[in-house]
Amino acid sequence: MMERCGCVLMLYTGSTGMMMIMMMPPGPPPTSYTTDGPWPQQTDHTMADDKASGVELSARTILKRAVELDNSRRFEESLTCYQEGVGLLMQVLKTVTDVTKKQKYRQKIEEYLARGEELKVFVKEEKEASKQHLQIHIEPNSTGHSYENLFGQYLNKFVTCVEVDDPYIRSHHQDQSSQQQQNQKIESIKKSLQAYGIQLLVNYSTTLHDREIRLDTGWVIKIGRGLDLYKSCDKFSIGFCDLELRPCHETTVDIFHQTTLKSNSKPN
User: What is the edge-to-edge ordering of all strands in the sheet holding 7-14?
Assistant: First the structure.
């Protein structure tokens, strides 16, 4: 799972709290598309008239905008630009007679089509999923509720930032070391994550109370007990390292999309 690059994990905890979890979004990061790749030079191809040259210029401009929107995580708008830009590039392709140049244009078209299709699926799935509010009730002493099982499906390759608010990560069974030792552990985790392109930022607050996890794709995960939903166990127990097998405290997990809150707040 540790293939994630360019991800930021921010954890907010109480002034005496302790960070005890690493969020590792699965999968590789989205490919970075650019219009600076192997484009055929405008002066190299045989265009019958200035109109064809104008179409290519428009295609470049629209696709450049698509990439900018993509990088800004405005995926729906980006998808529209990818579709329009590819349509124009296909028009240009019809006017090119040189085999080598045709291949270069096809390569560009396939590149943008692939990204467009990827965004199309993601946008559609997010729209459908965002209409739902998932609530999971965890029974006392039940197992099978690892973090991955609870919300791992939302940590897809479109996630680049995870914010965790949990002011009470300080139970005795979670960590029994001094504040200095805790800080040393956090620094070790930071360095370990940096090797995989993940930046960990830890902020302390004396007023924080609510507990939730926020993804920059819009998903919010609220756990009644926060991250401390697991019961303590002996270090030789099979549930010590595998949270899937560790008994849980009773709690409720709510998973919803931020757009749900926006739509519910609109006046009737």
Answer: 134-138, 251-257, 219-223, 212-215, 161-165, 7-14, 198-205
